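Consider one such protein record:
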Amino acid sequence: MTMFLADTHLHLYPCYDLDQTFSGLIDRLAAEEQAPRFGCLAERAGCNFYAQIQAGNIVLHDFSLQSADSRQLILQRKSDNRQLTLLPGRQIIAAERIEVLALCTDVLFADGTPAAELIRSIRAQNGVPVLPWSPGKWFFQRGKVIAHLLRSFTPQDFLIGDVSLRPHGWPLPLLMRNAKRFGYQIISGSDPLPFTSEEKQFGSYGSSISCAEADLSPGDALRSLLAGKAEAASIGRRSSPLELLRRLRYNAHARRQIR
């Protein structure tokens, strides 16, 4: 059996200090228990940090790049030789205005593509599609879209994503409960927002993934979840209601500053 600790919903932004970001990710995940650690990038349109690190265009002072290809980057912290694997991935805004993550792939997918088409395209690229919960985006008409996707596909087609933005104490949403009843696996991630200091969210909420098979890569561990050969359990903590309000307020302020 193989176990991994992972933050499965990560964004990188220019306002982040990447050395602090990656160190925090290692330390918060390692606080759970000793196991290989990895982070899943879900880069938004216009963000290409994975490709820049892979090409050596971003200099990290606290880390050395041990290996880099289209499947994964392995970073080693110079101070203690702890390693962190980063997996490529994208966040796409589907035509129905819901988010779809394409994990374990560096292929670009166009915003505005229908969600069902995105799921099929991501699987065709050997990626792992994820439908992540998001504040306000799983209700009303968009909630009906999620419900339709749960009925139209199978647990072998995509995963469900829980995030730290679902406040602590908030019950598991109805659509997530239905997804679990249908057999869909739920993975967890921090989903950091684009303003300075959000780096501290990295690794605060994630998944412990237990795989029946040995000697798997992190990407294969996620694919094993789709195949029903692995189990995921949430680790860490989600934001408190007050912390969530603070994060959303700072996020709104940061957006106004950009305009």
